[in-house]
Amino acid sequence: MSDDWGLERVEPHWQRERAEPVAVGPPRRRMSRAARIREERRRRQRRVATGAVVGILVVVVIGAVFLGSRLWHSMFGTPGDFTGSGVSDVIIEVRDGDTTTTIGETLQEQGVVATTSAFVKAAEGNAAIATIQPGFYKVRTEIPAADAVARLTDPQNRVGKLVIPEGRQLDDVRDVKTDAVTEGIFTLISKATCVDLNGDHSCVDADALREEAMSADPAALGVPDWAMGPVRAMGSDHRRLEGLIAPGTWNIDPSASPREILSSLITASTAQYAEGGLLATARALNMSPYQVLIVGSLVQREATPEDFAKVARVIYNRLAEDRTLEFDSTVNYPLDRIEVATTDADRAEHTPWNTYVRPGLPATPICSPSQPALAAAEKPAPGDWLYFVTVDMQGTTLFTRDYNQHLANIEIARRNGVLDSAR
Predict the structure, then answer these.
(1) Is the pLDDT of residue 218 over 80?
(2) DSSP for 315-362?
(3) What is the pLDDT of residues 265-276, one digit of tens each?
């Protein structure tokens, strides 16, 4: 066809005939709604089953790794153990009755070992672990459990062990004849607290202990009720604590304060005195426990063990007759010295302890008496003696009730050089 101008007419492209698409493969069937729901359900089930299989495989892999690790450690190492030489020094306490597990727990809490079980395992088969004594030990933090066992079983690592011999007093004393110094309880405590921690050497100073004894409230120091009145009556004199720290072996924490140290010692000593029968015996004697403690200290200083019970009887006999005791040990006590023969001037000094001028017992004990001395104070020997004197260097002591006989015994002592004064 052509238009009026003789041109051929061209149809627009959208009016041209299009080829129909040809389907590939077999013709699809249309699914019903129910079929589509069933198909979707099967797909979900396949996904859940696949996830479960993957989860089981993960658990199996983790379990294999864990069991393999346990097997590796059981064969080649200790689980949860530190390595190396440690980080810093630390003091730990082993208490009476602690088991290996309890010690391990203490070590773990202080950061010494990684786990309690590591320590217990390291201690297995080590006979020395049974020899560990209650007390304080210097160890290091973050050390292998085997190293911790070795340190605790080495006596060199024990610190804070305090030994107070019988008859010591709080202050150092000097022998007038020999000039020898006997260390007092404050000095002994100070030395027992000395320890090297991370290269620094430290001790609790004896003067700091003395200052605490003077200024602290007696209740804060553990002073028992039966001693509270006499102790408070001494005011700020540090000797008010005399006799309240018993002789024996004690464990003290070198890192504790002076007050904590004194309190722990007095509290433990009070318990020891009670267990020894001091309170019951005092009631039987119609005395206070503190008075019995004073008598025990006099017995300790005035006699040798074989004469303890006799000297105790002399004390009670003189008190019963309202006589002054006239013991040179009570003269020497506040002077911090040892001397058999005191001077007239010393015996005339008015002090809370001088029994030449003070009636009755001294104001406080004059030392820490031994158990035998306390036993003698509690059960004195039968006798009517009022006087005694040591007459030779072997310690022979003569007892009598007759004053003239006593003077004769004193002459024997002088001839043997026992009563010679160094001044």
Answers:
(1) yes
(2) HHHHHHTT-----HHHHHGGGTEE-SS--HHHHH---SS-TTTS-SS-
(3) 999 999 999 999
Specify the 3-state DSSP secondary structure of 161: strand
Q: Which two tokens stand for residue 12?
A: 């627009």
In 141-257, alpha helices (H): 145-152, 185-192, 206-215, 225-233
Residue 14 is predicted with a pLDDT of: 41
* 145 close to 119: Cβ distance less than 8 angstroms: yes
Please give the pLDDT value at position 395: 87
CB 317 within 8 A of CB 326: no
From the list 140, 147, 157, the residue with the least C-alpha distance to 87 is 140
Cα–Cα distance between 260 and 288 in angstroms, integer? 27
Q: 332 near 342, Cβ under 8 Å?
A: yes
Helix runs in 200-307, H state only: 206-215, 225-233, 258-275, 278-285, 289-302
CB atoms within 10 A of CB 276: 15
Per the model's pLDDT, the better-predicted residue between 423 and 261 turns out to be 261
Q: Is 307 exposed, middle or buried (0-12, 13-18, 19+ CB in 10 A)?
A: buried
User: Rounded CA gap, 94 and 253, in Å?
Assistant: 11
Number of helices followed by number of strands (H, E) in the chain: 15, 12
Amino acid at 76: F
The pLDDT, as a whole number, for residue 165 is: 98
The Cα 109–Cα 116 span in angstroms is 9
The set of residues, in sequence order, having a beta carbon less than 8 Å from that of 332 and lying 6+ positions away, is 173, 338, 339, 342, 346
The percent of residues in the chain predicted with pLDDT above 90, rounded, is 74
Q: What is the pTM of this model?
A: 0.78
CB-CB neighbours of 324 under 10 Å: 15
Domains of the chain: 89-159 (3.30.1490.480), 173-385 (no CATH)
Contact partners, residue 305, CB within 8 Å, separation at least 6: 372, 373
- Angle CA(365)–CA(369)–CA(374) in degrees, nearest 5? 100
For residue 242, give the 3-state DSSP assignment: coil
Contact present, 108 and 114 (Cβ < 8 Å):
yes
